[in-house]
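Hello forum,

I keep getting stuck at the same step: I have a sequence, I want structure tokens, and every attempt I make locally crashes halfway through. Rather than fight my setup again tonight, could one of you with a working pipeline run this one for me? It's a single chain of 347 residues.
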Amino acid sequence: MTTATATNLKQVPLLKRYANLTSLILIVSVAVMIVVSIGNPSLLVNTLVTGGMWALMAGGLALVFGVMNIPSFVHGDLFMIGTLIALYIFGPIQSLIQGDPQNAALKWAGPFVGMVIAFAVGAVVGVALELILFRQLRQRSRGQWVMNTFLLTAGVGIILENLAMIVFGNLPKGISRYWDVAPLKILGVPVGIDRLMTFVIAMVTLVVFSIFLQRTRTGRAMRAVSMDETGAQMAGIGLTRIYQLTLALSCGLAALAGAVLLWQTPFIPTVGTTPLLLAWYVVILAGLGNVQGAIIGGFLVAMVQQLTGFYISLDWVDVLPTAIIILILLFKPSGLFGSEVKGIWEQ
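Reply #2:
Ran it on my machine without issues. Output:
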């Protein structure tokens, strides 16, 4: 490489390089899925469905890390709480639907009740975590913040899992489906309504979430805090409100993911372990604290899972993403999209 070329490369804005990398990854990924789906369209359908859920989990995880530097390991238990709430809310509604099968409004809208309540309960739990735990820790000590909050969230997760085990037992509890409707054919593949609705719910939620962060005043304030907490405070942004809202949204999204996937992942106390690990895979893949990168990464991880399960073995579905994460940590610790979190190395 000549000196002139090296100089020109240095002059390329860093964000432009990341944008080019993002575009390249997306183009290659879309091309791979198009080629694969020609022979097996079900792989594309499964990637979209599971990718939407991993994006929900990872988006909330990246948000709380980016804004508050909290490596949350309680997100899997919020997923578990979501499945539990949806199970007990949808049970009576399902009985009403079976008693009046001609009630089309109840038949279609009924499943959403449990999902909305699960999101609300998750949000309340998030606010409670901020008020009871993180605020107290912040007031007493900011030293070793990342490690302390990691241990704190891991401990809370263990407590919640054991409480769930004591109260509800260890046996799986779930439903076969939310919507008792015949499957639709998409690309020649029969797709169950629950799978289709899972994708639609995930997409609508992610779009609303992205618009909130990008277009609203509160969303811009949250992004400002993630970039420079002191500067945001000097600009008049109330950190207390931002912290509470951040944890409310983050935990609410995790609970919503659990509620939406109840038909696929029945409730057991440890049901959130795999979603939590996969969400962390996605966050590391995208870059710590990069919310939009995490949304993209959710679909990338889902694609790797589906291709691995189909062409190699189902036993390798979680192994290959782990190997990819190890390689990324070795060669590009800041993630594919190069995100860095404020003060992470100092804390």
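Residues 14-331 form a domain with the ABC transporter involved in vitamin B12 uptake, BtuC fold (CATH 1.10.3470). If your local run keeps crashing, start a new thread with the error log.
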